[in-house]
């Protein structure tokens, strides 16, 4: 375990690039270092905040206690008769894992290419894009239980995966720290049915394969979403909400919006509502809404977490007032002002 440092800036450890100071900070390079870090924090009686790639968080000015950053590395592949088993350490970059799979001719995670963040963060919000979700392949998530400090492997059912949600984010919030993810990839055709994706493949003149889908997804994302290395952002800032069929009908009287069935309910793109209210490209100081995607809030340079959040709340209230639809934040808010 690296030594515990005091008053550490997290500006470069979060993709929104907002200034935030961790009272204490330590990195864990593998599961046993993580157990020691948690054990030591317990003995020191300091609260722990876990951080992966920092791509889905809004850090406020100060984080009390100890930030533990999971920095474990390593990916292993084992080919079976019907696919491959991939085990990746939590600190690996998600996109790096997608590339490693492509390099081995495996099919599956290409629809999730270019999603920022680490492998360890992926199961927490069950990352998804262009017609696929991580939960499709997860056979196990290795964790450290913060209560018993034991290492365990949770199976897919125990992870409670749902749209942009899991037991790690909801029922068991804070209980487990992810140390590795095991994916079982099957030999199957690439998924190219998502509306914009099929059109992009057509434009490229390519038949669907894991490589062509990855290329199309990368082009689509680059066109619409800001590169976090250039413009601070945390991806989608709101979840796409679901409505009852009646509420959806009522909404359609106000705005032209698609709906996708999700069990009994209808899931709608929050971006459409935010866009309709004219927020796209809006700027308040250095906090803004990305000009090419209404669901993405950006930091043009000097915004703090509070300014980003204030803007998010203004958008949320405006959408609630106009459309009677409640938007829920997607990133987690860390620390306080
Ligand atoms: N739309 C607008 N205005 C905009 C952007 C989009 O009206 O500024 C409309 C589009 O016309 C389209 C609909 O919204 O009909 C959906 O847009 P898009 O395909 O971009 O998808 P999304 O629902 O906004 C979700 C994910 C993204 C993921 C894309 C592609 C959530 C919260 N977001 O966005 O994930 O990349 O689908 O699959 O589910 C992320 O979570 O950080 C993220 C970027």
Can you walk me through this structure?
- The chain is α+β, with helices and mostly antiparallel strands and 337 residues long.
- Helix content is 26%, strand content 28%.
- A hairpin with a 2-residue loop joins strand 15 and strand 16.
- It is globular and about 60 Å long.
- The two termini are 29 Å apart.
- The model has no long low-confidence stretch (mean pLDDT 96).
- The protein binds uridine-diphosphate-2(N-acetylglucosaminyl) butyric acid.
Task: Supply the key terms.
single chain, 337 residues, alpha+beta, five-stranded antiparallel beta sheet, 8 helices, binds uridine-diphosphate-2(N-acetylglucosaminyl) butyric acid
List the helices and strands and how they pair.
Layout: E1 5-9, E2 21-28, H1 31-43, E3 48-51, E4 57-59, E5 62-70, E6 75-79, E7 83-89, H2 94-103, E8 128-129, E9 132-133, E10 138-145, E11 151-155, H3 156-159, E12 176-186, H4 195-204, H5 210-224, E13 232-236, E14 242-243, H6 245-252, E15 260-262, E16 265-267, H7 270-276, E17 283-284, E18 287-289, E19 296-299, H8 305-323, E20 332-334
Parallel strand pairs: 2-5, 3-5, 4-20
Antiparallel strand pairs: 1-2, 6-7, 7-12, 8-9, 10-11, 10-12, 13-19, 14-16, 15-16, 17-18, 18-19
Helix pairs in contact: 4-5
The protein binds uridine-diphosphate-2(N-acetylglucosaminyl) butyric acid (EPU).
């Amino acid at each position: 375990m690296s030594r515990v440092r005091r008053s550490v800036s997290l500006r470069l450890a979060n993709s929104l690039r907002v200034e935030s100071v961790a009272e204490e900070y330590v990195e864990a390079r593998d599961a046993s270092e993580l157990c020691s870090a948690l054990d030591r924090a317990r003995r020191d009686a300091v609260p722990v905040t876990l951080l992966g790639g920092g791509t889905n968080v809004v850090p406020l000015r100060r984080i009390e206690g100890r930030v533990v950053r999971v920095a474990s590395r390593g990916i292993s592949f084992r080919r079976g008769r019907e696919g491959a088993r991939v085990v990746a350490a939590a600190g690996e970059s998600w996109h790096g894992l997608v590339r490693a799979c492509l390099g081995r001719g495996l099919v599956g995670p290409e629809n999730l290419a270019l999603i920022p963040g680490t492998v360890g963060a992926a199961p927490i919000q069950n990352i998804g894009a262009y017609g696929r979700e991580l939960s499709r392949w997860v056979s196990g998530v290795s964790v450290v239980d913060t209560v018993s400090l034991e290492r365990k492997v949770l199976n897919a059912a125990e992870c409670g995966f749902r749209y942009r949600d899991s037991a790690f984010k909801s029922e068991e919030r804070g209980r487990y720290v992810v140390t590795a993810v095991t994916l079982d990839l099957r030999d199957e055709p690439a998924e190219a049915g998502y509306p914009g994706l099929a059109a992009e493949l057509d434009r490229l003149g390519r038949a669907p394969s894991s490589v062509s889908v990855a290329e199309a997804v990368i082009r689509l994302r680059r066109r619409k979403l800001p590169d976090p290395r250039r413009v601070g952002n945390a991806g989608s800032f709101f979840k796409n909400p679901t409505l009852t069929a009646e509420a959806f009908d009522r909404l359609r009287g106000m705005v032209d919006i698609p709906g996708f069935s999700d069990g009994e309910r209808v899931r709608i793109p929050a971006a459409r509502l935010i866009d309709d209210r004219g927020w796209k490209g809006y700027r308040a100081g250095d906090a803004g809404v990305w000009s090419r995607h209404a669901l993405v809030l950006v930091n043009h340079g000097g915004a703090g977490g509070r300014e980003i959040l204030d803007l998010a709340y203004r958008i949320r209230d405006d959408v609630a007032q106009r459309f009677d639809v409640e938007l829920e934040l997607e990133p987690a808010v860390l620390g306080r002002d």
